[in-house]
Specification:
single chain; about 375 residues; alpha/beta; 6-stranded mixed β-sheet; two-stranded antiparallel ribbon; 14 helices; 10 strands
Length: about 375
């Protein structure tokens, strides 16, 4: 390209290829970067170049973050300048995973520089026990910011969806016009069909009731807190707090690894719930379900939601027997392999198939779908399995 005139479109293409290839003699573009482009290239090179943890190729960009807190803090500021929030969160996650920067998050000044998101909260929770007191309040502030964002995004829709489900689940025989369930009313009066008029005479009306303030349903959230379930723990804690705020639903939140911890009394503050968890460790689903089963007083009005990748370290057959017993008693049992935006994680397929055979299909659920799943469970309808 040397000596040749480059058009505006060609120059832009060369610029983009230069950003992708990383510069040096091997990229073949002959394009130099300046200004913001040079800043973006340096930020990318610090993470994805050879010194940043990537594999060195001829001419590849390199800068590196090393283990220096000031250098990482400057880099965090740079990427927030050059990239949108969604990209910043991905780069932060990659930096923690590729470069082992978790220890730096124990420093308050580092936490103040990061862009909070669900994955960062999961990392902070995994470091909870190692966190010095000087960092703990800053970490709680970061976690609270993410929790408040999630509550704002998910809370209103969840309450509206579940309130509607509770109203519909209370059937009455003398409904107001606006409360008539026309589908059930027509089905109940098919014997009164008049062919000559092509109509049904509704002798008996079936309507939606209005959920009273008294508790109508009980929900038990049983959450696997093994390390791979970090994002699910965050979302489940937020949903637990939302459900607990609804007077017509009695909510219990239980977390487990090889031990079982009931965090129901902390549901008014999901931040307390999250800092009450201990990510990592083994898994004993059977023990957790035994505890949940012991707390059920009204099986026909209870929904149990198990959130786990189903890698059972306890007694497999006993776990399945407990699920079968709960379902036989009238409990609605929901198994979520994950509650996050990342799809299904690695999970035990044999256990998932065994649960499906019991009528409790296991599937990954996004936070946006969760209210619909819960509404279906409360109404005892088929679950909207993705």
């Amino acid at each position: 390209m040397a000596g040749a005139e480059v058009s505006g479109g060609d120059a832009e293409r060369l610029r983009r290829w230069r950003m992708v290839l990383g510069g040096g003699e091997g990229d073949g573009t002959g394009c130099a970067l300046s200004g913001a482009d040079a800043g973006m290239d340096a930020a990318l090179g610090a993470l994805y170049g050879a010194e940043g943890g990537g594999r060195k190729r001829a001419g590849e960009r390199s800068a590196g973050l090393g283990g220096s807190a000031p250098r990482v803090a400057r880099w965090l500021g740079d990427i927030r300048t050059y990239f949108p929030t969604s990209v910043v969160q991905v780069m932060q996650r990659d930096a923690i995973q590729r470069l082992g920067l978790s220890a730096l998050l124990l420093e308050p000044e580092m936490l103040e520089a990061v862009e909070p998101d669900v994955h960062l909260v999961g990392t902070l929770l995994s470091l909870n026990k190692a966190m010095p007191e000087t960092t703990r309040e800053t970490a709680r502030a970061v976690v609270r910011k993410v929790v408040e964002q999630l509550e704002k995004r998910l809370g209103s829709r969840t309450r509206a969806t579940l309130t509607g489900a509770l109203d519909r689940s209370a059937r009455i025989s003398r409904p107001r016009h606006a409360d008539i369930d026309w589908d059930r009313t027509i089905r109940a009066n098919l014997k009164n069909y008049l062919p000559e008029h092509r109509t049904v005479v509704p002798e008996r009306l079936v309507g939606y009731g209005r959920a009273a303030r008294a508790v109508k349903k009980e929900v038990v959230l049983c959450i696997d807190q093994s390390g791979s379930m970090a994002a699910s723990v965050v979302y489940a804690s937020v949903f637990g707090a939302v459900l607990a705020s609804m007077r017509s639903i009695a909510t219990r939140l239980v977390v487990f690894d090889t031990a079982v911890v009931d965090l129901t009394d902390q549901l008014d503050d999901p931040v307390d719930v999250l800092f009450g968890t201990q990510l990592g460790g083994g898994t004993d689903i059977n023990r957790a379900l035994a505890y949940c089963q012991s707390k059920i007083t009204r099986p026909a009005d209870t929904v149990v939601v198990l959130i786990s990748d189903l890698y059972e370290g306890g007694i497999r057959d006993e776990m399945l027997k407990r699920v079968a017993a709960m379902k036989a008693a009238g409990v609605e049992f929901v198994t979520l392999l994950a509650l996050s935006d990342e799809g299904a994680p690695a999970y035990d397929r044999d256990h998932a198939a065994a649960l499906a055979a019991l009528g409790a299909p296991a599937f990954a659920c996004t936070p946006d779908l969760f209210p619909e799943v819960m509404a279906a469970a409360l109404e005892k309808r088929p679950l909207p399995v993705p």
